[in-house]
Amino acid sequence: GPGEAPRRGPSLEDLFRGRSGAPGGGGGRGFGGGMPRLPQRPDGRSWLPAIAGGVALIWLGLTTAHMLGPKEQGIVVTLGKYSRTIGPGVSLTLPWPIESVTVRDVTSIQRNTIPEGEAEKLMLTSDQNLVDISYLVRWNINDLKLYTFQLADPEATVKEVAEAAMRASIAEVPLTDAMGGAGRALIEQNVRARMQAVLDTYRAGVLIQGVEIKKADPPQKVIDAFQKVTAAQQDAQREMSNAQAWAQQITARAQGDAAAFDKVYEQYKLAPEVTRRRMYYETMERVLSNNDKVIMAAPGVNSYLPLPELRKKAQAAPGAAPAEGGN
Q: Compositional bias (Basic and acidic residues) at which positions (predicted)?
C-alpha cells in the first residue's frame, strides 16, 4: 500500500539460508537443498583460512626448495627468461610461477645407435664402393644452458651431425680400411673430431665421448658376390705368398751355389789341372750313377760297360764267400 516501506531484494546470505531451510530441501544438497557447509572450529570460526594457509605452505615448499642429485643440474627460469644454473644439493628459488626449475642429468653417458634396429645405412667409400655401416655414439651434456636454449632438439642434432661426419670420414678411405683393421680406428677418431668441431660451432653444449663402429659390411643385395670376390682375393694372396717363398728358396740355393763356385774357383786358380780333373770325375760320377748302360768311344777300351751286371756280381760276391767257408 501507500504507507508500506520499500521492499529490498534478498541478500546472498538470505538465499542460502532460505534454501537450507526450505521444505523439501532433501537434506541440504544441490540447489534444491542448499550448499554443503564446512565444519566449524571449536571457537566457531571457519576452517577455510587454515586450509588455505596449509595449501600455500605446501605450494611454497614444493616450488622453492629443490634437491638435486650428484649427477644433476638445474636451469632456473625467471618469468620465462634464463636466470642461473644450480648444481647438486639443496637450492632455493622463488615460488612458481615466478621461477621454475628444469632438472637434467649432465654426467651420465647418452648412447645413440645409428641406424636404429636392423635398418641399412649405406655409405660410399673413396674407391666407389658401398658399405653398410652401423655405429654407436657416446656423449653427455657439457653446458646445460647451451644444451637447453641453443638448439630446438639437441639429441636429433647429435644424430644428424654424427651421420654427416661418418659419411665424410668413410668417403676418405677405401673399402678394405672401412671394413676393419687400423683403418676402422682412424675412422672413429676422425668422426669424433668432426662431430665435436661442428657441435662446438653450433654451441650445442654437448661433449662427444667416443664413436664405435659396430658393423661394416657390404650391402645385403651383393654380399654373396662380395664373399666370392673376397675368397678369390685370399686365394690370389696365398698363391703370391707361395710364389714369394719359392723365389726365396731358389735365390738362396743360387747364392749357395755361387758361393761354392767361388770356393772351387779359388782352388782352380791354385791348381788348374788337378781341379779340372776332380770336377770332371765328380761330374761323370754324378751322371753315370743313374745310367744302366754306358758306351765309351776310346781306343783300347771296351766300348760297352754292363754296369747292372757288374753291380749284381759285386753284391753277390760277399754272400758267396761265407757259404764257401762253411763247406
A: 1-17
Give residue 173's domain range.
110-223
> How many Å from the N-terminal Cα to the C-terminal Cα in the chain?
188
- Higher pLDDT: 11 or 209? It is 209
SS3 content of the chain, % helix, strand, coil (to 5): 50, 20, 30
User: Once rounded to an integer, what is the mean pLDDT over residues 280-294?
Assistant: 77
Number of domains in the chain: 3
Q: Which of 50, 76, 105 is the last residue of a domain?
A: 105
- How far is the C-alpha of 202 from the C-alpha of 109, rounded, in Å? 20
- Determine contact, residues 73/104, Cβ cutoff 8 Å: yes
Q: Is the pTM of this model over 0.90?
A: no
Q: For residues 231 and 291, which has the higher predicted lDDT (pLDDT)?
A: 231
pLDDT at 28: 44
Cell of 178: 672401412
Distance CA 37, CA 16 (A): 11
